[in-house]
Amino acid sequence: MKALPDDFLWGGAIAANQSEGAFREGGKGLSLVDLLPVKGDRMKCMLDGAYALAHEGKYEYYPSHKSIDFYHHYKTDIQLLAEMGYKVFRLSVSWPRIFPNGDEQLPNEEGLRFYDAIFDECLKYGIKPLVTLNHFDTPLGLVKKYGGWRHREVIDCYLRYCEVLFKRYKEKVEYWITFNEINMLLHLPFIGAGLVFEAGENKEQVKYQAAHYQLVASAMATKLAHEINPANKVGCMLAAGNVYPFTCDPEDVWAALEKDREQFFFTDVQVRGAYPSYVQRFFHEHNIKLDIADGDLEAMKHTVDYVSFSYYSSRSISAKPDSAPSTEGNVFGSALNPYLPTSEWGWQIDPLGLRITMNTLYDRYQKPLFIVENGLGATDRIEADGSINDDYRIDYLEKHIKAMQEAVADGVELIGYTSWGCIDIVSASSGEMSKRYGFVYVDLDNEGNGTLERRRKKSFYWYQNVIKNNGVIE
Q1: Res 330: pLDDT
Q2: Out of 17, 20, 265, 425, which could bridge 33 as a Cys pair, Cβ 3.0 to 4.6 Å?
Q3: Mean pLDDT of 397-421
Q4: How many C-beta atoms surround the C-beta of residue 474 within 10 A?
Q5: How many whole angstroms separate alpha carbon 390 and alpha carbon 392?
Q6: Which active-site residues does the annotation give?
Q7: Are 393 and 376 in contact (CB under 8 A)?
Q8: Is 228 helix (H, G, I), strand (E, B) or coil?
Q9: Which pTM was predicted?
């Protein structure tokens, strides 16, 4: 097996909206996630913007309002990451912490100082920040004023925000991601793009128009980052995982190809700089007519430096859905693959699928890859002696890291690996704390009760050793 390079970036990842809390401190405005309750209506709100807005302020508990209070615990949390030996820490900047309503002309200085302090703390330990610019937290003000990403005006708001960050943190941040899991816009249109559908309108038209504006914004932000600092490395990000045909029936194979294209549509544009040929038929058959202004297609030629992606599981699809049992998994529905085990949240566990996905992406784009999310959501139990023996998490991560190394041996160029939720955070899909991913346990329950005490899990020491040995697992 090919050894990982000496400069391989080991680390972990969190998002502002799932970790920071302090939702009204420091001049922060509301983001879309600040409207989401725990469990219950949470998924409906993520899907249906009208429903989310109609229920604003009506739920008893909003997990993002407190979360794990990273806002006040970042120094001790980053110290724990340094203790594990992190080379990189992926986090996001909360857009409404910098521009509370999204369309102000001047940024919120207090918000900028907060991220100055975070980046300084990382750099003190030799940890590179990997910053996501928009991680499902478009300011609520832009939704109420413009309808979110359905309108072109939001591009300028986003670029103003990006320019402030690129200039402010020019000496502190080298790695950037423009949009988190940009393809989730098609599946969670409110969280992905702040979309609120009107009765009777063509939803596919609205979603792909918003996608066009995000793709233009991503390309223009990439150009801007390179102009401000040529050393900047800007990546796109995909919620990835190959789709398998449920059987070898050619109809299933074709259905899988179409599902793969649904996700690759975004990265095809961000990496190749133009709309792929296959999408023209899709647009025609779904009566989608994009507003493409002069300069849009030229702007889209500014392509990313690397392809980052999340990977939790693969998916399967049948052309005859009723003929195959299903599992909910993440947001993506899937035919139940009989060859794979399933987590307690219904996600199928497929380490080889990571190697397949990496080879697929690298063969398609010939760009460096960066695994920026991978992990197992599970219930953890504190033993009588205070230990947390999360061997199930170690098993999951070990198998995926080995599959990752096999892909590198296949010739895939890989920059780094950041496991998801390295500190326990609020689950994006359910809002629960009981669905834990981290190496560090946070004393908080699903209702927001707890001391917020941090505890090292067994996996903390395991991952510390993995990093120390650069992936050689003993």
Answers
A1: 61
A2: 17
A3: 97
A4: 6
A5: 5
A6: 181, 373
A7: yes
A8: helix
A9: 0.97
